[in-house]
Design brief:
Distance between the termini of chain A: 69 Å
Number of helices of chain A: 25
Radius of gyration of chain A: 27 Å
CATH superfamily of the largest domain in chain A: NADH-ubiquinone oxidoreductase 51kDa subunit
CATH class of the largest domain in chain B: Alpha Beta
CATH topology of the largest domain in chain B: Glutaredoxin
Strand content of chain B: 5-15%
Largest interface: A-B, 55 and 42 residues
Oligomer: heterodimer
Shape of chain A: globular
Largest sheet of chain A: 5 strands, mixed
Radius of gyration of chain B: 18 Å
Helix content of chain A: 40-55%
CATH superfamily of the largest domain in chain B: Glutaredoxin
CATH architecture of the largest domain in chain B: 3-Layer(aba) Sandwich
Order of helices and strands of chain B: HHHHEHHEEEH
Chain lengths: ~625, ~160
Amino acid sequence: MATKTREDLGKIREDHKAGMVLDNNKEEKNIEIIVGKGTCGIAAGADKTFDAIIKEIEEKNIKNITVRHAGCMGLCYAEPTIKVIIPGQPETLYGNVDSEAARKIIERHVIYGRQVESLIFNKPAIDILSEEKDYNSDYKQYRIVLRNCGVIDPEKIDEYIARDGYAALEKVLFEMTPDDVIDELKTSGLRGRGGAGFPTWMKWSFSKSVKNDKKYIICNADEGDPGAYMDRSTLEGDPHSVLEAMAIAGYAIGANEGIIYIRAEYPLAIKKLEIAIDQARDYGLFGRNILGSKFNFDFEIRLGAGAFVCGEETALIKSIEGDRGMPIPKPPFPAIEGLWGRPTIINNVETLANIPVIINKGGDWFAKLGTAKSKGTKVFALTGKIKNSGLIEVPMGTTLREIVFDIGGGISGGKAFKAVQTGGPSGGVLTEDFLDTPIDFDSLVAVGSMMGSGGMIVMDENDCMVDIAKFYLEFCVEESCGKCAPCRIGTKKIYELLDKISKGEGEIADLQKIKDMGNAMKKASLCGLGQTAPNPVLSVIRAFEEEILEHINDKKCRAGKCKDLVTYTIDKDKCIGCTVCARKCPVNCIEGERKIAHEIDQSLCIKCGTCFEVCKFDAVIVS
Amino acid sequence: MSDVNISKIEFSKELSSFIEKWKNKQGNLVMVLHKVQEEFGYIPRQAAIKVSSLLDTPLAKIYGVITFYNFFKLEKPGEHNIQVCTGTACYLKGGIDIINELEILLGIGVNTVTDDGQFSIQSVRCIGCCGLAPVILIDGEVFGKLEKDQLPEIIAKFRDR
């Protein structure tokens, strides 16, 4: 493997375009089966599926077929997923494909040409449009960031190059000046996808304007929001897109060193990045005099170590510097004075993944998508009590209703929608009244939440909002670095009040105390963690005041989640004395003979809910 | 304090050469500690003392860094450390119930080790498999869409592996 020239890259693209079945109208092509092997896929057994497919092909002696693996396709609730592409037929996406299902699909679909109806996942497949085609509003999802995830093998650099990979870097190095690059970003209107939504071109221009012989580009892959995994999937499925973007950023501001700060909890993503960097270096795409230009750029990977606060810029820098990740006051801003005191650009993974496409297709093209002040698309991790849990990418301006009910398929288990939480521990909850809010940076803030990094958690009638607020606060208590008093003390105190409320010991005055402390934290905390930690609880107080008052005044938890406010009793009319609950009870607090109605000893009951779960006769009442 | 007690702990060749490679890089501490934990499963005090000497960094600073970051452990975990994800999606889908069930099945609390040294339970931050909530991680293997009654079988699979 030797260094490539621009001509070499062009040839790879031509050759591979002929060999890569992206357009179904080519008849001489092989049948292709793509198996999604992101972390979720592997967890669900994608390795076994892959092996079963290979085995079946060998046994049945099928020719003209290639089996590839790719990153996450976004259908996490139906992993393992595979895509079957037979020339002349529409692409078919299958879900829940274990070894048995794989064999069935090979036999029926590949050999006999008949799809296996019961396993098909049509809706998401026809919902998704890739950025290769112009945007069409018939499709709910439009993939720019995730363009290669689930399509290419992230360990084969040629597949990335074939899909216009590194073409943007070529264009930038040989046809554009650094100012041109920043102008293109300005036209695109790209705003940071990590949560703050700061205009990317502006941040880059700050760093560019500082005279310094050493500058840094840092990719923030610390993705600490619980419930968010957009960056993980992008790095596992398409690491080159981020690398290419970082080199482009380096060219624009005058930096030659790129650092990827990635959380240690993402071992597969780390591995894919290492392989990608090695392969790109091998081709001469990174290192000195890239592709014969005068530009040098290379990478280092630095690991996080489980500290949420290190997603904050200054804390992240401290962490790379080998210290405790404690934020410092801003200004100075990292763009001017960052890592080791040098101008440093820190961009989120998703922000970066957009850059090559913006350069290739132009800022104008990007700015056609989205709303007036929020251009482009956003990737969301849609999880919680939703039928189609997974990763989606939608144009800004799509409403919450479309996401939850159309793409998401509505609430699982036939339950009622209660709220959707966006923005993680910095965000807020939105009720049914706000479902028609279009997603964009400003409109979400206007209704009391925020975009955040993209975690979107759906809750149903069985989720207690006091419990949720408590969950997020507990997270902030543990993750607070402890440096500034408002956050260190405020998170703990508010958590204690919520805990009291959840145990039926709350008072009305507590709500005002929470609001006062919350407002103090927002104004006086040193960094974003403390400033936004009160958001979930304040938003719950605004939107679910009745439910909280029930906890305080009536000592009641309508969702049945707060254990101290819940009592489990057995309905004597329904109980047939099957003894299942008594046997399963972990503390043996259920008494009763066979065929005689049982009774729970309230003094021993630990409210674990096991009896409620195992009773087949609905005889256990939760009140 | 005397520096006479330079530890007798042995670092593998791989670990030693990693430290050698990173010795002169700025901000090397977190990366080196990761490698130490990879080798021992946690960061033994003796290892920290040796790192302090090799990197010429005060032990107090190393202690400060280890205790700041959730990932680093000061105590030896079980042979098989069961990590239960307590991210938002897993929490909603019963992650805490999984922890409670594990505590009952193994007879230990979170962050403690069973008497035979086989298992320990740890609650961890979101590992990013929210589509498969609730999720646990044992020895790098992810188990998703978990239900309480699957746990005894999973534990048995890892025992004495």
